[in-house]
UniProtKB/TrEMBL annotation, chain B:
Record PANTHER family: BLR7065 PROTEIN (PTHR43005), SPERMIDINE_PUTRESCINE TRANSPORT SYSTEM PERMEASE PROTEIN (PTHR43005:SF1)
UniProt lineage: Bacteria, Pseudomonadati, Pseudomonadota, Alphaproteobacteria, Rhodobacterales
Localization of this protein: Cell membrane
Top-rank taxon: Bacteria
Record-level GO BP terms: transmembrane transport
Membrane topology: Multi-pass membrane protein
Name recorded for this polypeptide: ABC transporter permease subunit
GO CC terms: plasma membrane
Residues annotated as domain ABC transmembrane type-1: 80-296
Alphabetized Pfam families for the sequence: BPD_transp_1
């Protein structure tokens, strides 16, 4: 991070608290929080593997457990719906838009933070303001634009519009990382005759790798989770992303296939959750970094 | 880069080696993107609000007619009320519970990092997919909450979570708070960790009670971060779309329509792009107010640190 957080990890005043008091004041509320925050996932997972007979029969089977879990819902999803296609679309769109945004953001952040061209401060502020513009007020005009340039109902529409919220975020985050790299490194390289391009690729970028990872996985998650643009710009089933596909194609009529819906939700969440579990610290630093700057 | 003829090469070189030239060049991709897909649509949206554009038909300028129409539209005013109510109540709850969770996590606990990691999960999982889980939890017949409450004998028949206006409002709010707590808690935790323990210890030695230590030491030092975190939180709650769209689509009888969902409803399925854009534009003043609030929060932070 730009400014290394001072983590004060010694026990402090906590050691004077009695155990009973601590159980009551700390562990009990914490357990409640964790229960509430995780219960929907548990419910999602248990529904995804419940046979249809047990799904709504709360009299004979405890709803909290499952006897003889089944993979039927997941099989149905993978082999009888367009789910694998949506998964693939989401992946393509997320990877491409993340890559585009990172590329543009690295240059922009370096220019604002290090080249300090005339108006750099104002540009930095504008980037921050751009981050605050919500997709819910942009989707109508964007749909008009997307239609006019003829990319309506294609993956390209999403790949080109997702950077509107990714670039401001990544630039803002990377500016913080670049700020933490000492000027002296660049100065000595300049004295040794390095060009700006060499400085950027050989000195600044290698040092900013943690920042690039943070921005990259965060941008990937944001585009994986995006909904309103995908809902508006995509109409044919084969181009839909996971959130839109699950909601618009798996919800049919009055009888909801909860098993299939929940396994769709579970499978669609897994990629980001796996990514998250590998990079927890990067996530936390990018989330708090965007706020702290 | 296309090959540049010789005499201009030196100009090109000078351009690239100057700060402003190279800065401009480096800014170009990001700026082009944001101008085309952010600034231009923002302007276009404002313009569409003054037209009667429909899907597939360019609009005519009709001045303030859309806004005049909205002024007399009870559904619009209901959505404004819902949005404000939803934003205020959900933000206050998120702040209170988030701060509480942050304070709990800021203690000396075993497996602190593990707790922090799983607490962030609701925020990582795509909102639409977790909202589907809530949809199932709030099912009118097979809700697990109703089942447990009935089992305990608290209620006699299932709660109609999403079918009754006030129940629906509270249910979507609960889902929103559930999703927002992790962001607030983890961000505030990061802020709490920058506060040296020694300040708290010094206050304790001077005889301050835990409440006084929180009120007079922790809270003032945390205020700037709270301002920024809550601005983001308010902004995202105010413009929320996904949760409502999944859980209720604005129903029952428009009782949960937010401005964002109403604008979608009118513009895309309804085809009235102009009217939808006008509703979206009507959100801007509220957003500006939130941003200004954040700006003054940041100012105060600078003043506290004695930077200026």
């Amino acid at each position: 991070m730009a400014d290394q957080t001072v983590t004060d990890d010694h026990e402090g005043l906590d050691q004077f608290e009695s155990r009973g008091r601590k159980i009551f004041l700390v562990w009990l509320p914490l357990a409640c929080f964790i229960f509430v925050l995780l219960f929907p996932f548990y419910w999602m997972a248990i529904t995804a593997v419940k046979p249809n007979a047990q799904l709504t029969d709360y009299q004979n089977h405890s709803p909290f457990w499952v006897v003889g879990p089944t993979l039927d819902h997941i099989k149905y999803l993978l082999f009888e719906t367009s789910y694998p296609g949506w998964l693939w679309n989401t992946l393509i769109v997320a990877v491409c838009s993340t890559f585009l945004s990172l590329l543009a953001s690295v240059f922009a952040a370096y220019a604002i933070e290090r080249l300090r061209f005339r108006g750099a401060r104002v540009t930095g502020l504008l980037i921050f303001l751009a981050y605050l513009v919500p997709p819910s007020i942009l989707f109508i005009p964007l749909s008009v634009i997307v239609f006019q340039i003829g990319i309506f109902d294609s993956k390209l529409a999403l790949i080109l519009t997702y950077p509107t919220f990714l670039i401001p975020f990544c630039t803002w985050l990377l500016m913080g990382y670049f700020r933490s790299i000492p000027y002296e490194l660049e100065e000595s390289a300049l004295v040794d005759g390095a060009t700006r391009w060499q400085i950027l690729t050989k000195i600044v970028l290698p040092l900013a790798v943690p920042g690039l990872i943070s921005a990259g996985i965060f941008a990937f998650t944001l585009s994986w989770n995006e909904f309103i643009y995908a809902l508006t710009f995509i109409s044919s089933s084969e181009n839909k992303t996971i959130p839109v596909g699950v909601l618009t194609e798996l919800v049919r009529g009055d009888i909801y296939e909860w098993g299939a819906l929940m396994s769709g939700a579970l499978l669609g969440s897994l990629p980001v959750v796996i990514l998250y579990s590998f990079f927890v610290d990067y996530y936390v630093s990018s989330m708090t970094g965007a706020v702290k700057e | 880069m296309p090959p540049v003829p010789e005499p201009r090469a030196s100009f090109w070189r000078r351009f690239v080696e100057s700060r402003n030239g190279l800065g401009l060049l480096f800014m170009l991709p990001a700026a082009a993107f944001l101008l085309c897909f952010l600034t231009y649509p923002l302007g276009l949206g404002v313009w569409l609000g003054f037209t009667d554009a429909r899907i597939g038909r360019a609009g005519q300028w009709i001045g303030l007619e859309n806004y005049a129409w909205l002024m007399d539209d009870p559904v619009f005013w209901l959505s404004v009320f819902n949005t404000l109510f939803y934003t205020i109540v959900a933000s206050v709850l998120k702040f209170g519970l988030g701060l509480w969770l942050a304070l709990l996590l800021n203690r000396h606990l075993p497996c602190k990092n593990f707790f922090r990691a799983i607490i962030l999960l609701p925020w990582v999982v795509p909102t639409v997919l977790s909202a589907l889980a809530f949809w199932w939890i709030f099912d009118s017949q097979f809700s697990i909450i109703s089942w447990v409450l009935m089992k305990w004998g608290i209620i006699s028949q299932p709660i109609n979570f999403l079918g009754d206006p006030w129940n629906a409002r509270l249910s979507v709010m609960a889902a929103n708070v559930w999703r927002g707590i992790p962001f607030v808690a983890i961000s505030l935790l990061a802020g709490l960790q920058t506060i040296p323990q020694s300040l708290n210890e010094a206050a304790a030695i001077d005889g301050a009670t835990p409440w006084q230590r929180f009120r007079r030491v922790t809270l003032p030092l945390l205020t700037p971060i709270i301002a920024v975190v809550m601005t983001f939180s308010v902004l995202f709650t105010f413009t929320d779309f996904q949760l409502i769209y999944v859980l209720t689509r604005g129903g029952p009888v428009n009782a949960t329509h937010l401005m964002a969902t109403l604008s979608f409803q009118r513009a895309i399925p309804g085809g009235q792009l102009g009217e939808g854009a006008a509703i979206a534009v009507a959100m801007i003043p509220f957003l500006l107010a939130a941003i200004l609030f954040s700006f003054f929060g940041l100012q105060r932070r600078k003043w506290q640190q004695g930077a200026d």
